[in-house]
Design goal:
The chain has 299 residues and is an alpha+beta fold. The chain has 12 helices and 10 strands. The strands form 2 sheets. A 6-stranded antiparallel sheet has the order 1-2-9-4-7-10. The longest helix is centred in the last third of the chain and has 19 residues, at 235-253.
Amino acid sequence: MDPTRLAELAAWIQRFTPGDGVHPTAIERVSFLRAARPGEPLRVLYQPALCVIAQGSKQVMLGEEVYPYDASHHLVVSVDLPITGQVTRATPKAPYLCFQLDLDPVVLADLILKAGLPPPKQQGPSRGLFLGETSSVLLDVVLRLVRLLETPEDIPTLAPLAIREILYRLLKGEHGWRLAQIATVNSQAQRIARAIGWLKSHFAEPLRIEDVAREVHMSPSSLHHHFKAVTAMSPLQYQKQLRLQEARRLLLSADVDVATAGFRVGYESPSQFGREYRRLFGTPPGQDVRRLRELEQAS
């Protein structure tokens, strides 16, 4: 960890984040995140991404597992995962500041092939997220990418090169094999990634594990075992998280009542929807939405 590089990255992020929240940049797939104070746990669906903290700290929770990290370590999420995230250290004078690069498995696969990188270790699928030490080498290339915001005309040509180097550094790192698994054709990890994609497209439908297994060319028992290894939950639990998070989004952004939101995401029983919503988010749907809207207005 290099304090000088971190200070520069923090300055860049502050320059392009006028307030709290997620701020897309002129560089495709790159966003900056800012928070002026610690927040409450927030359940979201993380997409594949690299997160490098420049200032402050955060923790993410996958099931019962907790992954705390700060500027000394970066987070890599390799598949879509329902995760609880919480900023744990931030102040108005020293806000939480984070660089995020959304990952593209297609670009990863192409890089592995063209760079002649060895195939990943023949191990069973591992968790779909991990923490790695943030080295000066990784910070250097992140900074080169971020500095392109000052010369937008250079972004189309130079940003893809810097992004490929970032991915190369991740693949060459201690946990690179875990990322490479997702991009390796017909690996068990890639099949789980495909199963996740299928569930995202069909989450409102009744789940038959045999249908998903057939779609990704696995036996039902193998799918269940490897799915849990990657996501820390069963396919049914994963589907339930997708349903409830989509229902929460509908209640916040669309003019629908609780029963309609539950029906749209696949629940036939309003009472079951209410019970499962409360179990996941801690309060009944109507009360939860009112609280979130009050928080949004207060900020």
